[in-house]
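In the design runs reported in the main text, the only information available to the sequence generator was the tokenized backbone. The following block is the verbatim input for one such run; it is reproduced so that readers can re-run the procedure and compare outputs position by position.
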């Protein structure tokens, strides 16, 4: 396969060749974070789905491994999860521990309308730390007579009830199933009617507990539900979250979950889920999403490979206005992969502009506190700039809006819905907007106000669009801190 590397990210995960969508089977085991992914190894558009595979020990650099799961007599391998079966509940491991993948087999309903899909859950296991996989001879382990959309199992061990729990996307709801051994599943409950966004089919759910502001006496459960692309809605595919209580069978949403809340307000973060089995002494909930949007995922202008994952992120909950609220921040490991380039404190805005004028950068992180005090016009940064290209990250204090404008970010001719300005309402009370911005060859990820709002957006700038500037404040306004870190070294 001939690839064009022009837009290949420096520090984001991409398949070596061909198509990728959702992250699958995220599991930590014996020092490695596994990342499997929806993969079509014969083409650069969506097709017969396999699980591609990679591992990382530092959440920043990845080792590609051979394809883990390929289609078989039960169909394609759709999205799903993986767990460590520590106590050999499956009997696959002769009393030891091992990895089990729980995924959706997708085929056609025999004897029915040939267009009618059938989706059933199946198992595969690995006795060699994920290097080779054996499909369970009893597959599939869970089907349904009437649901056509019945997919994307995310499984976890629920210690309080000593059982496995599966959350599964079931059309416009999620359903819970429980099991003692991952093979026999019993229906527990269904959630989603009359709550949340139904602007598309529900996909790729996740459910995990987090202590609000780190308080072990105040644990809430966080549910992620991705919703598929429906042409009626401008945003395309995106991921919502709920907070609430979970007793091993039923999810009871918080009051705050009556409002629709998104995990990311950019256009390009979909189908993300969290790693299973991160050691308790670490205690983090680590996440990665697919950095694309079904609206145009098959048309993005890369050659020989297509799509990247977001950077790894740490998820926490904090209380805001009485509601448990999701915070996403870059995984702290990414700080080991960066090299400081610029570090300024209390610098005048005009002076900062002059300092940035000569810089040429393509993959980096910016950490800044922007002065927005009296400014009722937008202030912000422009990244990946040249005479005719720029990606604008701005904050409009009057409108209380954080936005990314990729109207002139580079190539956008591949889909009419790509170019544009997208925003999120974000209040600021102290006159300084805190931003961490990750820029790579074909993406920007903006973490605002310590992770309270996140925007992830693809961009396709010319390789020579390497300028960086700030705009909008008075020349003598003071920028309390401004740092740039280069990430990676490949030139
Ligand atoms: C989400 C999704 C999943 C499905 C997979 C197929 O992006 O549609 O629901 O399992 O992609 O590749």
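Verbatim output:
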């Amino acid at each position: 396969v001939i690839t064009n590397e022009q837009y290949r990210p420096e520090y984001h995960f991409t398949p070596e060749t061909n198509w990728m969508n959702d992250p699958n089977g995220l599991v930590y085991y014996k020092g490695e974070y596994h990342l499997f992914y929806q993969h079509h190894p014969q083409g650069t558009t969506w097709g017969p789905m396999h699980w591609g595979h990679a591992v990382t020990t530092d959440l920043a650099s990845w080792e590609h491994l051979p394809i883990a799961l390929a289609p078989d007599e039960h169909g394609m391998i759709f999205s799903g999860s993986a767990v460590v079966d520590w106590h050999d509940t499956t009997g696959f491991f002769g009393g030891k521990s091992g990895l089990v993948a729980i995924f959706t087999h997708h085929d056609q309903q025999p004897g029915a309308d040939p267009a009618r899909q059938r989706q059933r859950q199946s198992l595969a296991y690995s006795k060699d730390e994920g290097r080779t996989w054996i499909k369970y001879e009893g597959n599939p382990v869970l089907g349904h007579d009437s649901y056509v959309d019945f997919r994307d199992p995310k499984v976890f061990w629920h210690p309080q009830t000593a059982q496995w729990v599966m959350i599964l996307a079931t059309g416009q709801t999620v359903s819970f199933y429980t099991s003692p051994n991952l093979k026999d599943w019993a229906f527990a409950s269904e959630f989603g009617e009359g709550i949340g966004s139904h602007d598309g089919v529900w996909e790729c759910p996740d459910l995990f507990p987090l202590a609000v502001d780190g308080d072990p006496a105040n644990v809430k459960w966080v549910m992620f539900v991705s919703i598929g692309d429906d042409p009626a809605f401008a945003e395309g595919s995106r991921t919502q979250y709920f907070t609430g209580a979970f007793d091993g069978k039923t999810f009871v949403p918080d009051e705050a979950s009556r409002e629709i809340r998104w995990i990311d307000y950019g256009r390009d973060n979909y189908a993300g889920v969290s790693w299973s089995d991160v050691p308790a002494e670490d205690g983090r909930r680590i996440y990665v999403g697919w950095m694309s949007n079904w609206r145009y995922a098959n048309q993005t202008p890369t050659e020989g490979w297509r799509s990247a994952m977001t950077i790894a992120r740490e998820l926490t909950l904090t209380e805001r206005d009485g509601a448990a609220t999701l915070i996403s921040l870059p995984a702290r490991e990414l700080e080991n992969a960066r090299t400081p380039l610029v570090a300024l404190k209390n610098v005048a805005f005009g002076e900062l502009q002059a300092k940035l004028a000569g810089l040429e950068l393509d993959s980096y992180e910016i950490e800044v506190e922007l002065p927005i005090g009296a400014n009722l016009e937008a202030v912000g940064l422009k990244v990946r700039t040249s005479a005719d290209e720029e990606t604008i990250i701005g904050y409009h204090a009057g409108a209380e809006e954080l936005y990314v404008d990729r109207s002139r970010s580079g190539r956008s001719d591949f889909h009419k819905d790509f170019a544009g300005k997208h925003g999120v309402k974000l209040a600021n009370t102290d006159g300084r907007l805190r931003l961490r911005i990750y820029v790579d060859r074909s993406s920007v990820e903006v973490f605002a106000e310590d992770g309270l709002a996140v925007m992830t957006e693809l961009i396709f700038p010319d390789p020579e669009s390497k300028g960086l500037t700030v705009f909008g404040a008075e020349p003598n306004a003071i920028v309390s801190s401004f740092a740039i870190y280069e990430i990676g070294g490949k030139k």
